[in-house]
Amino acid sequence: MSKILEWITISLMILLTLTVTIAVIARLMGQSFSWYDEVAAIMLAWITYYGSALAALHRRHIGFDSVLLAIPQKIRILAVLAGELIVLIFFFLMARAGLQVLAVLAGDTLISLTWVPIQFTQSVIPIGAILFMTCQLLSLPGYLRLTSAGISLEHAEIEEEVETELEKNKDRA
Fold first, then answer.
1. Which of 16, 22, 30, 115 could be stapled to 43 by a disulfide with Cβ–Cβ 3.0 to 4.6 Å?
2. What is the rounded CA–CA span in Å between residue 99 and residue 142?
3. pTM of the shown model
4. How far apart are alpha carbons 84 and 62 in whole angstroms?
């Protein structure tokens, strides 16, 4: 799942970069595309949704490990499960609302590219929400194990960065 989400996100980033670069070059040459603003905004939204699912899979969203680890273990696990439930409910509601939005947008097309249905561009809302829920659930067992053992994802990452910087600085001394 991680490789697929990485591939999608990186591909969208490359496409966005190419789109904006080509549009800037065209504008400098006296030509302006009517569609690039709309398409670039849509691609940025898609990058956000797919990238957030990828971040959820690796538990890289903002968290409060220090606060969580200060709580006694039994309550800590309940707090993790309560937090997960809140996140899942939120994204379930977002997916449901996204599907309702798609129904409302039936028949509408982009302003600049009238052959592209808005339902296609906005399908990222329910798809992204479902992907986020799936990634949260896939990463939950590992996160529960670490949290139960009192291991912080944030602290491990910070310690790794500190070690890397110390190694770099040893060579300079």
1. 16
2. 31
3. 0.84
4. 13
Distance CA 64, CA 50 (A): 23
With cut-offs at 50, 70 and 90, classify the pLDDT of residue 113: very high
What is the SS3 assignment for 117?
strand
Torsion angles phi and psi, residue 152, rounded to 5: -95, 130
- Six-digit token pair at 119? 């339902």
* Burial of 145: CB neighbours in 10 Å, binned 0-12, 13-18, 19+: exposed
Which residues are within 8 A (CB) of 75 and not within 5 positions of it... i.e. 6 or more apart? none
Tens of pLDDT, residue by residue over 39-70, are 999 999 999 999 999 999 999 888 777 888 88
Give residue 128's Cα distance to chain centre.
8
Tokens of residue 170, six digits: 């040893």
List, in sequence order, every beta strand (DSSP E) within the chain.
none
Identify the sign of the CA torsion 60, 62, 68, 69.
positive
- 3-25 pLDDT per residue, tens: 999 999 999 999 999 999 999 99
